[in-house]
């Protein structure tokens, strides 16, 4: 698995988790979903992604998006 795919998979899992928490625990968990979306948007413009840095430290090989 490349770094790019790991970041996409992680983002998908976090979004699904935040939706599940919003539905089952409390509606204010929707702000977690908003945070994830804002982080994805800023990553698209700046290239800075904390999750990518963590996965890179774990030794995943780089893809074309995060170098």
From TrEMBL:
Keyword RNA-binding set for record: no
Gene3D superfamilies, sorted: 6.10.140.1340
Highest rank taxon of the organism: Bacteria
Inner membrane protein YgaP-like transmembrane domain location: 2-56
The keyword Transmembrane helix is assigned to this record: yes
Keyword tags: Membrane, Transmembrane, Transmembrane helix
InterPro entries per record: YgaP-like_TM
Sequence intervals crossing the membrane: 7-25, 31-55
Protein name according to UniProt: Inner membrane protein YgaP-like transmembrane domain-containing protein
Organism the protein comes from: Aliiruegeria lutimaris
């Amino acid at each position: 698995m490349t770094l790019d795919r790991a970041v996409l998979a992680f983002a998908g899992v976090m979004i699904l988790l935040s939706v599940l928490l919003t539905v089952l625990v409390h509606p204010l968990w929707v702000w977690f979903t908003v945070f994830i979306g804002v982080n994805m948007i800023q990553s698209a413009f700046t290239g800075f992604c904390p999750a990518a840095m963590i996965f890179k430290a774990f030794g995943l090989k780089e893809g074309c998006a995060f170098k």
